[in-house]
Structure formats: C-alpha cells, structure tokens
Amino acid sequence: MASRPFEFQPVLARTLLQAILVVGVVGPGPALAQQEPPTVTAAKPVVRDIVEDDEFVGRFEAVDQVAVRSRVGGYLQAVHFTDGALVKQGDLLFTIDQRPFQAAFEAAKSRVDVATSLLDFSQLQLKRAEELASSGNLSTATLDDRRREYLAAEAGYQGATADLRTANLNLEFTEIRAPLAGRIDRRLVSIGNLVQPDSTLLTTIVSTDPIDFYFDVDERLYLAYAEDARKRGGALQEGAGGLDVAVRIADRNNASFAGKLDFAENRIDAATGTVRVRARFANSDGVLQPGMFGRINVPGSLPYRGVMLPDEAIGADQSRRIVYVVDAEGTVSAKTVRPGPRNHGYRVIREGLTGDETVIINGLMRVRPGVKVKAEIVTLPDEAAATGEAQ
C-alpha cells in the first residue's frame, strides 16, 4: 500500500503548538529557578595597638670562623675528631708525624747543654783572670780576651736557647688544636698525605652561639634607624642602640627568634644605595645555621591603633586591592584598601577601613558587589594561628 505522508502534518503541527504553550505557561524548569544566596564567612577586622615592622631578607653568618691549617709541614699521622662534631677550644684535631721534630728538639737541647757548659767555663776563666789582674799577675790584654770569650759563650748560649724554643714550638705545632669552640666541618685531608705548612686546608670551624644575621637596608630606612639609635643613646654603627628585632626562618612554623641590632657598616654602597646591617641572636639549641636565609622584622613605627585582616580576605581588582563588606541586609559592596606589612599573623590595613565593617574572609570567589549573601559571622583571634610559612 502506498504511504500518505502529508496526512500526518496537521497532527505534528498541533503537537508542536501544545509544547510551546506548555513551556510558556509553566516557565523555565527547576535548573533555571533562582538560587539561594551564597553562604560566606565574615568577621570584624582585628583592631589593636601595633608597631609596624619593616621586613628584610638576609642571611645568617657565624660570628667567628676559621680555616684550620698546619704551621709545620709533614705527613698527616692521625685525625682526632668526628666529622661535623661540636669541638671545644683547645681540642686536639690532627697530629703531624712528630719524629723529625722530636729529633730536632733533642738536637737543639744538646746544643743548649754544650752552650751552657762553655758559658760556665768561660765565666770561671773570666773570674780567675779578674783576680789575677787585680794583683798585677795578669796582663790587661789577657783579661780582655777572657772577657771576650765569656761574651761569645753567653751569646752562643742565647742562640742555642732560642733554637731550642723554636724546636719546641715546631714539636707542639705537630698537634693541631681547635682555635675556637664551634662546629667542625669534615676532614679535607686523609691520613698519610703530605701537609704543606700554612697552605694545606685541613678543615674549617664555625662558631654557633651566638650567631649573626646580615641584611641590607636602603638609605631612607637607614636614616630612620640611625635616628632611633641616637635617641637610645648609641650609634647604628656601634651597638645600634640595642634595637629589638625578630627573625623567622622558612622551615619553622610560626617560629621567631628574638635578637638585637648591634652593627652597621660605616658607609653606604654607592652602587646599590644600601648599607649592610647586622643583628645578633642567641643560638644555644643550634637551630640557626651559617648560610641560612631568614626574614627579619625591624620596628619601623611608633605604637598606634591598627586595623588588620587575614591575607585571604584581600582581593585584587587590576592594580587595586579590595575587600568585600557585608551590610545588615546581606548586600555586598567592595572597598579599596591599602595593605601594609604583616603583624601578629595578619595584614595591616593602612587605609580604607575603620574597623567597624563586617568583611568577608572566606568565599570571595562566590560574591561580587551588589549581590546578597548569607553571612556566617565569626570572631578573629588577636593572634593569627600558625600558617607554616614565613611571616
């Protein structure tokens, strides 16, 4: 039987019309319905008395460090320390083969004995000659010869004694001892190698407690710190007025070490416009190591009432920094702020907030100015919790 396709067209048209009418009456489906306001976390800023810090990056250096070398040459006979150990001043570190120096010491000692015998004999001869000359039984020329022989023997004795002291020193120098207390490096020469005097590097020692921290400041800040040091009755180059500072290292969660500024270089570098400043820290537990990087905070303002927020509450709008504020009705608005340094674990807000606002601190990606949100209000602690990163 032949098909009749055109007979079904009215039915199709009526079906499409009914579908359009149903959509128009019912409206969009549940997926297009208006969503609930997003939930965010908001809080009042932390407002407290603070002292603004200037932060610098620097490096720790040992107060004292020494490269250990031998004063005498010879073959290395023994090593008396463990690589990386803490040593005390005077501890025995290395021994050079002592036999040649012992022989030289004994030879020098024998020459002293000979010189002593000759001096005693010449002194006795001079005394006899003086007695005979006084009675007229000895000529003046002979007396002068006896006096010359005595002076020559005395000079020979002094020379032999000096040689003995030198030989004794060289024998002592075969035992190489720690010139200072600190942590020793590994041995750089193995037993049996020839050690050249004053040239072969055997190991190094660095002091550990206290430890210094060096950093560079620009000319403007240098002048401010120098003025503060003068007010404290000192100079930045000498003692730095005892200004209290704190340093943080990357591998210690929220750990800071307290110290004091104690030195600054006596000229500003013409190439960089900076001056190097030093702070000294106690290091009894040995956590701080020479060469380690750190961030130092130096007080840079007088105490004042500051407004602070967590870093995650601060957003960016091109070149501006903004925070989102929620009013009593839940409407979001943006405020431009000028952040400062970190303090007590928060970011100081230098301009833009009074401290009375309710600021969104979590959920910034779900808001924009003008929308309504459901704000869960929390209270920020006076001190931010440890974040595991340098402040």
Automatic annotation (TrEMBL):
<dbReference type="InterPro" id="IPR058627">
    <property type="entry name" value="MdtA-like_C"/>
</dbReference>
<feature type="domain" description="Multidrug resistance protein MdtA-like C-terminal permuted SH3">
    <location>
        <begin position="307"/>
        <end position="365"/>
    </location>
</feature>
<dbReference type="Pfam" id="PF25944">
    <property type="entry name" value="Beta-barrel_RND"/>
</dbReference>
<dbReference type="Pfam" id="PF25967">
    <property type="entry name" value="RND-MFP_C"/>
</dbReference>
<feature type="domain" description="Multidrug resistance protein MdtA-like barrel-sandwich hybrid">
    <location>
        <begin position="65"/>
        <end position="200"/>
    </location>
</feature>
<dbReference type="InterPro" id="IPR006143">
    <property type="entry name" value="RND_pump_MFP"/>
</dbReference>
<comment type="similarity">
    <text>Belongs to the membrane fusion protein (MFP) (TC 8.A.1) family.</text>
</comment>
<dbReference type="InterPro" id="IPR058626">
    <property type="entry name" value="MdtA-like_b-barrel"/>
</dbReference>
<dbReference type="Pfam" id="PF25917">
    <property type="entry name" value="BSH_RND"/>
</dbReference>
<protein>
    <submittedName>
        <fullName>Efflux RND transporter periplasmic adaptor subunit</fullName>
    </submittedName>
</protein>
<feature type="domain" description="Multidrug resistance protein MdtA-like beta-barrel">
    <location>
        <begin position="243"/>
        <end position="297"/>
    </location>
</feature>
<dbReference type="InterPro" id="IPR058625">
    <property type="entry name" value="MdtA-like_BSH"/>
</dbReference>
